[in-house]
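Hi Y.,

Following your request, here is the sequence exactly as I used it, all 253 residues.
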Amino acid sequence: MTFSLVGFLVAVALASNAEGNTPTTNLVVNPTFSGWSDSAPSGWTVWQPLISEAACTIRPAKDGVLIDAPDRPFAVGGLQQTISGIEASQSYAVEATGQISDADHPWQMLLVRVTFTRQGRAVHPAGWLIAGPELRRQGESTKDWTFRFSDTVVADEGADGAEVTLAVKWPQGAKVVWQSVAIRPTDPLPPRKVKVGTVYLRPRNSTPEKNLDLFCAKLDEAGQLGLDIVCLGEAITLVGTNKTAAEVLEPIP
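Below is the corresponding structure, written out as tokens. Let me know if you'd prefer a different format.
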């Protein structure tokens, strides 16, 4: 009898654990971009600038969707999807993954945004920028990476939907393959204290290059103090250089 009771309790425990580990539903339709309809993966729409010469090219890839612009280094473009089933004030885990190749500056090229909506209109036009990309090199190459965006966001008050945007900007010869996207309900993050600091620094008889080194060193010090947010002064490349604003202008990007 004891053996049977123990076996029963173990079975119940395993069943409960299995239920607890069951992943919640991914609200994204076609999260791995399989199947195409017209010019975009099924369930997705393409967003591009009105000027075609500034638009990225979007096409199927073996394991996702490829976005690049071989002859347009400063092009932009991406994919969007309208998400249903959103509940106001609910926390959502957002994740997006992919690969990037031939990239000299991968950090500035990728963006994931979630904009919560109410009756089809943005609750806040800025939306939520999802943390990332977290980059890992592929092999010995210094230009090939895998990337991951991951964050937890809270649906705005009154929200009943959302729009997720996957963006590529200024590829400069690089190729981006988005491979998967997920938006799932999750438990809210526990509250925590945020450390905020400011940097006051006025160099003298300096140069723009020296200023950047000085302020980067201060940012490193702030990181060692465990600060979450660091506020810097304006005109870092100008202050203390005895130059005019016109003399320190730089092209964008």
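The first strand starts at residue 36 and ends at 37.

Thanks again,
Q.
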